[in-house]
Amino acid sequence: MLSHFPQFLLAQTDADAPALRFWPERASDMAGHVDAVFIGLMVMSALIVLLLLVLLGYALFNYKRDDRGLGLWIAKSRWKLETTWSVIPFLVFLGLFAIGAKLYIDSYDPTEEGREINVVGRQWMWQIYHPEGKMEHDQLHIPVGEPITLVLSSEDVIHSFYVPAFRVKRDVVPGKYVRLTFTANKTGRFHFFCAEYCGTNHSQMDGWVTVMEPEAYAEWLQQDMSGQDHLTLAERGREIFHAQGCSGCHEPDSTVHAPRLAGVAGSRIALQDGGFVTADSGYLRDSILLPGKDIVAGFQNVMPSYQGQIDEGQIAALIAYLQSLDSEDSDVSTR
Amino acid sequence: MDNSANSQHHLVNDPPENVAEEPQENYLNEGKGLMSWLTTTDHKRIGILYLLTITFFFCIAAFAAAIMRADLTTPQGDLVISETYNKLFTVHGVLMIWFFLVPSIPTVLGNFLVPLMLGAKDVAFPRLNLASWYVFVAAGVFTLYAMVAGGVDTGWTFYTPYSSTYSNGHVISMAMGIFIAGFSSIFTGVNFIATIHKMRAPGLTWMRLPLFIWSLYATSIVIVLATPVLAISMFLVMVERLFGVGIFDPALGGDPLLFQHLFWFYSHPAVYIMILPGFGAISEIIATFSRHRVYGYSVVAFSSLSIAVLGFLVWGHHMFVSSQSVYAGLVFSLLSFLVAVPSAIKVFNWSVTMILGRVQFTTPLLYAVGFLGLFTIGGLTGLFLATLAVDVHVHDTYFVVAHFHYIMVGGMVMGYLGGLHLWWPKITGRMYHEWWGRIGATLIFIGFNLTFFPQFILGYLGMPRRYHTYPPEFQFLNVVSTAGATILGLGYLLPFIYLIVSLKKGKKAPDNPWRATGLEWTTSSPPPKHNFEQTPTVNEEAYAYKD
Prior knowledge:
A: alpha+beta; Immunoglobulin-like; 5-stranded mixed sheet; 9 helices; B: mainly alpha; Cytochrome C Oxidase, Chain A; 16 helices
């Protein structure tokens, strides 16, 4: 095993080998903010360690028992000191909390989302579905300077999508959609990893984000479609809608009493139990896999679950299809 | 060697009756044979049983770590395959947490010292105390069975649905081992609470208690309140795995985050179960070798209690990226900052105690100073992790690995070793070799920093934890870390050797070799079976150093 060590030394002169790094690349808007906070924390920590070293140094090399001077002052001012070293850290911590919280909200609860790309994690690969129809795995191509919202889902266990250069990470929890928004501000290739332990080949569940100029990205979306079906994600969803028999009940001329789906996506829906829900992608997903969870007012739960019948990629396509329909659509009109 | 003799002379105050030729009756020689040990209800002997047992588990867990560090010298991981690597870090975590760190100070030093420090003959429930050891051994058998039968690859955190549905390992028997080990902890916790409440010597009021007792009291409360939740979460994992009942796996209608809430509701307080006893040992060492009362005694005592309480309210900081609600994240972040305040207070009080006193450089003191440095770095990096946006980047990376090793190993293990050295003469009746002690403490400090400091950088660079293979740009720092681990391993080997050697060759220890205060030092070394000739009375505060 140690025989690789000399090779590693040689690799330093190899042009292909990555440079030895002590600071990660910065390639997103968030990265600069996180680094600034991190550097601030390091400066604060260094000052505190220095203070401790001074105190310890004084204690260790002051052999005399100190009952006068400093010692007397310390002994007399006990409550002053205790208050000082409780209140000052407390105030500093409040400040740190506020700064970290502000950035966290910006990142995890953004006011504006961007171009949606579906990312599905499974043991041990990442499958990526672009709305334009292109699919890739362990590779993610995105345009620079535009907010991107990844819609993350998992086929099996918990994974975590992590791009160090962007300073963003989010666990991909099975059974729901998790959304992650970021804006890359630098073109290039950046490593992404699975950060939540997911089994045997967890450490090989990585890939590369390629950040491109918008024009190059537009061109890339059209290239190399050979082997793929040239359909957009929504068009593929339409095919599944028919192939899986969804249309049998949900089409306007169906004899089954089922909700019509045109214009449903994004609308506010009245439920049987008197509540209301907004038909976001999470709701649509649940309606396919757990049809009995939220029943639309005026309907019976007669739909079978599609759990285990279709995979996350097909669900993403179906949802893209439903989202592509407006209420006037003749395909599955609301009547 | 001369120096050691000098410093001994300086420290030692041996009353003539203690250098008697005849070996006096003590707890070690009052009964002979294996059975006398296996059926003992003497808290001191149970402490020794625990010492041997947890040292055994520590060695296995450390060996697992050694293989991992060796494997990580190359990016492609040539020594073992990924499956083995995953089993190694699971065994390392499970054994270190539940079979070494959680029991270490309470069951070894606590069992030995709580009755002695209180002036009592034994703990409140001596047979329950022995039962706790047998339960602990039974738990160890289940865990070792899981290990040799083929291993478990879930990590010590057992995240669902991986552990409950997908993993192929012997999850049930390992979860069973942890489930059972919890009962052992609870027995010890209950025993300490009852003992501290009811068995204090006349005059030993609450505000005269040694800080070691205060910290074990706080620990026991956390143990008794939190451990049942661990049992619940392990039990539910077993139920889902055995019977396919949907609790955590969304495919069965469960919620994976529910497990994380339950697990961390125990496992974050468990951090304080591990570190609070360390605080106690450090307080004793610093007072003893500064020859001064711990500055702000009441503040230090109550900060342990406030840590115990606040420690229950911060579990969600393990879940900032887990898709729990953003607002829950905010609350947990704020509370996590608050729990850092009492720790900071302790560090300042200890430092000032040393300034006020007259410090003697001894092995336990070196461990305590090492503790102060490493725990401070561990605590400060905890603030990085409590800062939400920074946590999003470093969560589940080597930054976290480095952080909790600074707390658990840099803090807790230094406290444990320091305490073991401080009370070794009392426990065994022998002095260890002072100079080897100092060399050992220094090597551990250097080796520890070399091992774990590079991991902070690796984490910020983005190397995820639990990675068997990694991109080549991370290799240099991994090699440095492994080199440090070699020194650290050597550092741990030293006390192992010279402490055993001291049993045969060490000088006879006087009753109070450090001229320390505290009731445990008023009885003989090693103490007689019933601890004291007659029940002591206390009429002054703890740490009443006069010179």
